[in-house]
Amino acid sequence: MDSISARQQLSASKRWVIKIGSALLTDNGRGVNRAAIQNWAGQIGALRRQGIEVVLVSSGAVAAGMDRLGWRRRPESVHQLQAAAAVGQSHLVQVYEHAFGQYDCRTAQILLDHDDLSNRTRYLNARSTLKTLLSLGAVPIINENDTVVTDEIRFGDNDTLGALVANLVEADVLLILTDADGLFTQDPRDNPDAELVREAVATDPRLVAMAGDSRSGLGRGGMSTKVRAAQLAARSGACTVIVGGAIDSVIERVATGENLGTLLLPEADPLAARKRWLAGQLQVRGELVLDAGAARALRSQGKSLLPVGVTAVSGRFHRGELVSCIGPGGEEVARGLVNYDSTEAQRILGQSSAEILELLGYRDDDELIHRDNLILL
Ligand SMILES: Nc1ncnc2c1ncn2[C@@H]1O[C@H](COP(=O)(O)OP(=O)(O)O)[C@@H](O)[C@H]1O
Ligand SMILES: N[C@@H](CCC(=O)OP(=O)(O)O)C(=O)O
């Protein structure tokens, strides 16, 4: 993929995770930077009006708490860090709520820990809640649940959390806003000759060697966790952009395809990467039996699965879960994320999509499974 088409693809994307780091948010430790938050909220509001959904992953709780408690240096003790996070987090979300309120955007606070994403039930719950919030037009604001995590269950840095959230909500883009203009060939603070990497494949092993640690004393990961986050995000097909959050109108400009910061791309075609990730990630919750025409439409015509081509439904599943599509001869044809739950699927099977509204009283999608969410086997 060349640079122009990859950048243009950003402008066509529909769901972004935006991660904002501590150094940027707290203006290097001088309390929460309200003006910057106000500015990003305005830009995110503009994205939403263009139809792009945004999930925010915001750091800054510890740094904001330290400022409020009058602490100059980041404490060593876990309990002091947790206390600072508790003080800072409530202040942080209050600033966000006020800022987004100016643009008629609702916000929602979500605090996650590692268990929430590794435990199957909690993972699916988190995913459904986030998707529901997005469908309600709210901007979820996520941070690690610092006050309860222990070292064993810590994500450790919000770059990783941002990438896992991008996987969770199947985002197209992970935008990491930081205090450097992007990934440089060496840490630009020590090396004035370091050059900005404009674009690379996320898994390129040279990137990890370029990326160093954090210097601010506020941020945790530095560039190395950002590169690793891009690799994680690429697994579900997301592009990552690492860019300076203080650049004028940065979010809107990246969204128009402007060549800012560092673009890190998934290796394969993003859709193929995402489908591979889906296949490995999720458990099959049920089965749809297809008639011969539907099996052919999926296999050879690259079509979506419509209810009219389904003859039977088994298992209990929710909207968004993975189901298996079985051909009329009993062979597995495909797997995909289903748009209706098992009860709804029972009621609309064999019917044309035009009947969905009458049968269910509402119609979310015409397809039972959209072809973008289908993996042929
Ligand atoms: N190769 C590199 N390119 C750019 N920045 C780098 C590089 N290596 C290390 N860094 C450092 O990473 C810092 C950003 O990471 P960090 O302090 O964790 O920020 P954040 O709080 O936004 O996560 C930069 O300020 C920079 O000093
Ligand atoms: N959960 C922590 C985040 C720490 C962290 O990862 O910071 P950063 O490297 O600036 O994104 C906080 O809110 O302070």
TrEMBL record:
- Alphabetical list of CDD domains matching this protein: AAK_G5K_ProB, PUA_G5K
Pathway field of the UniProt record reads: Amino-acid biosynthesis; L-proline biosynthesis; L-glutamate 5-semialdehyde from L-glutamate: step 1/2
> Has the keyword Amino-acid biosynthesis been applied to this entry?
yes
| Positions of ATP binding | 19, 178-179
Source superkingdom: Bacteria
- What is the protein's given name? Glutamate 5-kinase
Catalytic activity reported: L-glutamate + ATP = L-glutamyl 5-phosphate + ADP
Q: Report the HAMAP family cross-referenced here.
A: ProB
- Keyword Chloroplast carried by entry: no
Keywords (A to Z) from UniProt = Amino-acid biosynthesis, ATP-binding, Cytoplasm, Kinase, Nucleotide-binding, Proline biosynthesis, Transferase
The protein's job, in short, is:
Catalyzes the transfer of a phosphate group to glutamate to form L-glutamate 5-phosphate.
